[in-house]
From TrEMBL:
GO CC terms in record: cilium; intraciliary transport particle B
Classification lineage: Eukaryota, Haptista, Haptophyta, Pavlovophyceae, Pavlovales
Organism for this UniProt entry: Diacronema lutheri
GO BP term, example: intraciliary transport
Record's protein name: F5/8 type C domain-containing protein
Domain of life: Eukaryota
Length: 140
């Protein structure tokens, strides 16, 4: 069974973020509401760590965003975030010219607890992440 492990509804949480705005906090990236989003400041790189409710296997990362130019994805298997393995090397996303970007990345994460998205560059000074979906299954 495949489930969105990142969603707050399923116990996921936005644990760490390098930017925080009161109107657009990191939690908005996983709240399941397409009208909300996490917004970054005007500097790069930016990072967002999503903690899963249990050790999980993740097969796909789906991302809806605006303005991301280059991104990488990393996974950490330990209970507390520590060393991360790269599961998607730095990858360029096509310019959406201010419109929504929808990307699906096929990855292989086994027994992961934390997933870190690193936004290396944007097409503009700010980027927005509307939704992060981590499709997979809990192992515990």
């Amino acid at each position: 069974m495949s489930d969105n492990l990142a969603s707050a509804e399923n116990g996921g949480q936005a644990l760490i973020a390098t930017s925080w705005d009161q109107a657009h906090p990191p939690e908005h990236a996983i709240d399941g509401d397409d009208a909300t989003f996490w917004v970054t400041t005007g500097m790069f790189p930016q990072e967002l760590v999503v903690t899963l409710p249990a050790s999980s296997a993740v097969a796909r990362v789906m991302l809806r965003s605006v303005g991301i130019r280059r991104i990488s994805i990393h996974a950490c298997p330990t209970e507390q975030p520590g060393a991360y393995d790269t599961v998607l090397p730095e990858t360029e996303i096509a310019d959406g010219a201010g419109s929504r970007q929808s990307e699906v990345f096929t990855v292989k994460m086994e027994a992961v607890r934390h997933v870190k998205l690193v936004i290396h560059a944007g097409w503009d000074h700010f980027v927005a992440v509307n939704d992060i979906r981590l499709d997979g299954r809990k192992l515990d």
